[in-house]
Specification:
The complex is a heterodimer of chains A (423) and B (116). With 423 residues, chain A is α/β, with parallel strands linked by helices. Chain A has helices spanning 14-25, 63-76, 140-150, 165-176, 195-202, 262-267, 304-323, and strands spanning 3-10, 31-35, 50-52, 61-62, 80-83, 85-90, 95-100, 104-115, 119-121, 137-139, 157-161, 180-186, 209-211, 213-219, 226-231, 244-247, 250-253, 257-259, 271-272, 277-278, 291-293, 334-339, 343-347, 350-352, 360-366, 370-379, 382-392, 398-402, 414-419. The model of chain A has no long low-confidence stretch (mean pLDDT 94). The chains are: A alpha/beta (423), B alpha+beta (116).
C-alpha cells in the first residue's frame, strides 16, 4: 500500500514553513515539509543583510534570523521536515514522487498539497546579451551564495546589470568584501529595487547607477575582461555612439526572478501568463482541487513578510479543504479579477463570492511609476474600494484588502485599475 | 554647505536639498512630508548604519553576523576589518558575541545564524 500523508508542503523556505505552521495550528498535524536543501530557510539563509520582518515582528532582522524564528516554530510543533528531499513530480490526483539519499524514491498519496517552491533568477541565456561566453558571469544570487555561504569572492572588478534588490544588495556586499563595483546598469528608466537599497547600497559607497543603460557586448575569452555599456532609447534599443567600455572580471546579473513551476506544470495546473505562477482563487487554490500555492512560486514578492502572511492563508485554506473534504458550503459563484489600466497582474485572479471567509488580500503590481493616483476596485458602476496613493511603483507590491461583505451582490468581473492623478 | 540626498521613508524617494551649518541641518527642502525632514536631519548630523557581514569559523565555514545596533556610517569599513581579522569557534548560536566592541565603536558584532 502506498504511503499516505494528509498534507505535503513542497519547499521549506519562508512560504513553506509559514504554510505548514498555519495548517498545523488549524488541526492538520499529519503534515510534512519537503526541502531539497539540507536545512530549512530557503533563500533567506544567504540573505545575511537586515531589513526582514519589519511588518511581522516590528523589528529589523537578517534573513537567517527571520528563517530561524519560523524554523523554531516548526520545530516547537514537531512538524515533520524531510530535508535533503527533492520532490520530482506532483500528479493531478495529488500523489507526489520524492527522492532522498536516506529513503530512496517514494510515491506518497496526499489529501492536499501546498506548493512553496519559490523562484529562480533569470539567467544570461534568457537575456540575449551578445558577446563572448567567458567565466566571470554570475547571477547576483549565485554570487551571494558564494560570498555569504561558501566564503568565496567571485571577482574584484565588478559591473552589475539590473538594479533588482539582489543586485543592489550584492553591490554593497562585494564592496565590503574588498571588490570594486564600478557600475550598476539598468535597462529601464527606473530602478527595479527598493529606494532604501539604492541609497544604502549604492549612494553610501559612491556606486553609480545608470538608468536606461544595458550591456551590449561581453569581452574576454577564458575570463571576462570587460563589458560594453550603452544607453537605450524608450523602446529599449541601444543608441549608437553611446557605448562605453568597462574593464571588469565579474558581471553580476540581477534581471528579474521567475517562479519555479516545473512541478505545477507537470501536474497540469493552469499558469497565469502575467505572474508565471499558478492561477489561484481567493483561497490560493490552484486549478487542481486540493493543491494550493503561496510565496514566490505564486508571484514574486519583494517583502518576505508578505510571503509569510500569504503562506499562512494557504495553510489555513488547505486545512479547511482537508476538514471539509473539498466541499464548499454554498454553490460556487466565481467572479474574475481583471488587471485594468496601470495594473500588470492581480493575485488572486478570481474570487468565489459565495464562499468567502477571511478578508481577501488583493495583491498586484503597477505597470509604471504613478504619482498622486487612485487605486480603484470596481464591478461595473459599483466601486468596491477607492484608495488614494501618493505613489505606486512596479518594484513595490500593492496589497488591498477586500471585505467579504462588500462582495455580496456582485455579478460580473471585478476590475482593478490605477487612475492617474493630475500631478 | 548644501547636500542632496534621497529620502528613504517611502517609495516616493523625495530628492531633498539640505542646507548644513556646523554639521546640522538648518533647512530641508524637496520633502513632501515630515519624514523627509527627520531623515535629512539625522543623515547630516549623525548618520548610522547596521553592518552585516560574515566571520570565518575555525572549520572554514563562514558565519553570518551583524552589529547589535547601528554604528556610525564612517566606521563601516573599520567594523568589517575587525570582523575579517577574527575567527569564531563553532558551534555558534544566534545572538552569540562574535567580536566585542568592534573597531572601538562600543558595539558588539553578534551571530545571526545557528552554525555547527
Amino acid at each position: 500500500m502506498a504511503e499516505h500523508i494528509s498534507l505535503a508542503v513542497i519547499g521549506g523556505g519562508p512560504a513553506g514553513m509559514a504554510a505548514a505552521i498555519a495548517a498545523y495550528d488549524s488541526g492538520v498535524t499529519d503534515v510534512t515539509v519537503f526541502e531539497r536543501d539540507d536545512e530549512l530557510g530557503g533563500i533567506l539563509n544567504q540573505c545575511i543583510h537586515n531589513g526582514f520582518g519589519l511588518h511581522s515582528f516590528k523589528e529589523e532582522l537578517t534573513g537567517p534570523e527571520y528563517a530561524g524564528r519560523y524554523a523554531g516554530q516548526v520545530k516547537k510543533r514537531g512538524i515533520r521536515c524531510e530535508t535533503g528531499s527533492m520532490v520530482l513530480s506532483v500528479s493531478p490526483d495529488k500523489r507526489i514522487t520524492v527522492v532522498s539519499k536516506e529513503k530512496g524514491l517514494r510515491v506518497i498519496e496526499t489529501d492536499a498539497v501546498i506548493l512553496a517552491m519559490g523562484c529562480r533568477e533569470r539567467p544570461r541565456g534568457a537575456l540575449n546579451i551578445p558577446g563572448m561566453r567567458p567565466q566571470g558571469i554570475y547571477t547576483a544570487g549565485t554570487a551571494q551564495k558564494l560570498v555569504n555561504c561558501e566564503g568565496v569572492l567571485p571577482g574584484k572588478e565588478v559591473v552589475i546589470l539590473g538594479s533588482g534588490d539582489i543586485g543592489l544588495i550584492m553591490a554593497r556586499r562585494m564592496t565590503l568584501e574588498g571588490a570594486h563595483v564600478k557600475l550598476v546598469a539598468e535597462l529601464m528608466p527606473y530602478s527595479g529595487g527598493l529606494k532604501r537599497n539604492i541609497v544604502q547600497c549604492l549612494d553610501d559607497y559612491g556606486i553609480p547607477l545608470k538608468l536606461s543603460h544595458t550591456v551590449v557586448d561581453i569581452r574576454g575569452k577564458r575570463r571576462l575582461e570587460g563589458v560594453v555599456i550603452a544607453e537605450v532609447d524608450g523602446t529599449g534599443t541601444p543608441i549608437p555612439g553611446t557605448e562605453e567600455y568597462y574593464e571588469c572580471d565579474t558581471l553580476l546579473l540581477s534581471c528579474g526572478l521567475i517562479p519555479e513551476n516545473e512541478l505545477s506544470i507537470s501536474a497540469g495546473i493552469t499558469i497565469n501568463g502575467a505572474t508565471n505562477g499558478p492561477a489561484v482563487d481567493e483561497t490560493l487554490a490552484t486549478s487542481i482541487p486540493g493543491i494550493f500555492a503561496c510565496g514566490n512560486v505564486l508571484h514574486v514578492h519583494d517583502l518576505v513578510d508578505f510571503v509569510s502572511e500569504e503562506a499562512g492563508r494557504a495553510g489555513r485554506n488547505a486545512a479547511k479543504y482537508i476538514a471539509d473534504k473539498g466541499a464548499r458550503v454554498n454553490e460556487p459563484h466565481i467572479v474574475k479579477l481583471i488587471a485594468g489600466n496601470g495594473v500588470r497582474y492581480t493575485v488572486p485572479g478570481m474570487i468565489d463570492t459565495a464562499n468567502t471567509g477571511e478578508d481577501i488580500h488583493l495583491r498586484f503590481r503597477a505597470r509604471n511609476v504613478y504619482k498622486g493616483c487612485t487605486i480603484k476596485v470596481s464591478a461595473g458602476d459599483n466601486t468596491i474600494v477607492s484608495k488614494k496613493k501618493r505613489i505606486t511603483v512596479p518594484s513595490e507590491m500593492e496589497d488591498i484588502i477586500l471585505k467579504p461583505e462588500t462582495l455580496g451582490g456582485i455579478d460580473g468581473d471585478i476590475t482593478v485599475e490605477i487612475e492617474e492623478g493630475s500631478v | 554647505m548644501t547636500r542632496n540626498m534621497i529620502c528613504i521613508g517611502c517609495p516616493m524617494g523625495c530628492e531633498l536639498t539640505v542646507e548644513v551649518e556646523n554639521g546640522r541641518a538648518v533647512s530641508v527642502t524637496g520633502n513632501t512630508c515630515g519624514i523627509g525632514r527627520k531623515y535629512a536631519e539625522a543623515e547630516v548630523s549623525a548618520p548610522t548604519r547596521m553592518v552585516t557581514t560574515t566571520i570565518m569559523s575555525d572549520s572554514g565555514v563562514p558565519v553570518p553576523v551583524k552589529t547589535r545596533t547601528a554604528v556610525p556610517k564612517e566606521k563601516i569599513f573599520d567594523v568589517v576589518s575587525a570582523v575579517k581579522s577574527s575567527v569564531i569557534r563553532l558551534p555558534a548560536r544566534i545572538g552569540d558575541t562574535a567580536v566585542e566592541n568592534a573597531a572601538g565603536t562600543g558595539i558588539d558584532v553578534i551571530v545571526t545564524k545557528d552554525v555547527g
